[in-house]
Structure formats: C-alpha cells, structure tokens
Write a structure and sequence with these properties.
Elements lengths: L25 H11 L11 H12 L5 E2 L13 E2 L11 H13 L9 H21 L4 H10 L3 H9 L6 H11 L3 H12 L10
Parallel strand pairs: 1-2
Helix pairs in contact: 1-2, 3-4, 4-6, 4-7, 4-8, 6-7
C-alpha cells in the first residue's frame, strides 16, 4: 500500500511511477514487486540492497544473474555473474561498425590536435580490429595490444584469411595503417585505444 491506498499493477502491460521523499520505502515497494513477479525479470538498479533483498526468492523460481563488472567478488554465492563480450558477434562487419561507433562516441579526445580527424580515423580502424579479433577468436586484451603496440599485421592476416566474410575496405584500412607514417599511426592508435582504458582495471 502507499499512504493507505492499495497499489495494483498489471503484469501484462502498463507500469507504475513511484514518487516519494528519501526514507519513504520506495525500495521496499520495488522489492515486493520483484519478489512477486510471476515470470522472468530484468531489474535495473544502482542499489545493491535491492538484489540482497530479492535474489533468494527469485532463485527459487529460476537462475539469477547480475551484471556488475566492477564487483564480481561481492555477488552473493547464488547469483551468477552476467558477462557480455564486446568482440563476440563482430565477425559481422555491420555489428563491428555499430559497436565501434558507440565506443568512439563515448570517448573524449580533448587535447589532441585535429581531434575530429583522428576520431574519424579511429572509427575506421576500430571496426576492422573488432572484426579481426572475433574471426581469429582473440580477446579484447589482444585487440588492445594491437593498438598500443601499433602492430596491425596479425589483424590484417586474420581479415585476409576470412576475406570472403569481410569488406575489402576493412582490409585496406588496416594495410594502410601498417605502412602509415609514425605520427599518423600513433595518433590513430592513441584515439582508438582510449576506448579500452577500462582494461587497466584488473577486475
């Protein structure tokens, strides 16, 4: 109930907007909804106490997963970590292009001269590297190494091996990088590798 009124929610469609000041037990209400849901749920929250209050009840109905990349070790024993690979699926050049675009748009390149130009170059190089990594079954750290060391030969070889599955433009883009002037290769690598800074966190 809320302020003495019964709250009814349809599981088929619609939703509910819950407003209240701090300490008004909004999270308690949400926990009761999570526990009482008749089927699978996707629950998005920044509050770990919501999972603490509900996972045991939900586990009785089926497996419980949590996406918490920075605190795997803090998950309850019965909650399985949910992982997502940036590389998986990038053998499809269109998927690789979409992911690369999203990564580059989320990365600032302030302080780099002609940053717009280098961001454009990074958007061309990153899809090719994502595609090469997926085709050759390499992980994200290998992709990061290609960028950091400015060595694209392995990636070019991977794309050439599966040339029937990728666009020729991808292969030519990386070929150009292998023969690019030092400043060009370094600037492109610096811009694109910024999207992988999170790999510095060992977790």
């Amino acid at each position: 109930s809320a302020r003495g009124h019964e709250v009814v929610i349809s599981w088929d469609e619609g939703g509910a907007l819950v407003l209240g000041e701090p300490g008004s037990r909004k999270s308690t209400f949400l926990a009761s909804v999570v526990v009482g849901a008749p089927g699978p749920q996707i629950v998005v929250s920044t509050k770990p106490e919501l999972m603490t209050a509900t996972w045991l009840s939900r586990a009785a109905k089926g497996p419980v997963y949590a996406f918490a990349p920075l605190c795997w070790d803090a998950l309850p024993e019965g909650v399985k970590p949910l992982r997502w690979s940036l590389i998986s699926g990038c053998a499809d050049p269109h998927v690789a292009a979409r992911r690369a675009r999203a990564l580059m748009e989320a990365t600032a390149s302030a302080g780099l001269a002609n940053s717009g130009f280098w961001e454009g170059k990074g958007r061309a190089v990153l899809p090719a590297l994502l595609c090469a990594a997926d085709l050759s079954k390499q992980g994200l750290r290998t992709l990061a190494r290609w960028l950091q060391e400015e060595r694209y030969t392995e990636a070019v070889e991977a794309l050439e091996r599966w040339s029937d599955r990728v666009e020729e433009s991808m292969i030519s883009t990386l070929r150009q990088m292998t023969g690019a002037a030092d400043r060009t290769a370094s600037s492109v690598s610096h811009t694109a590798s910024a999207v992988l800074e999170f790999l510095q966190d060992a977790r």
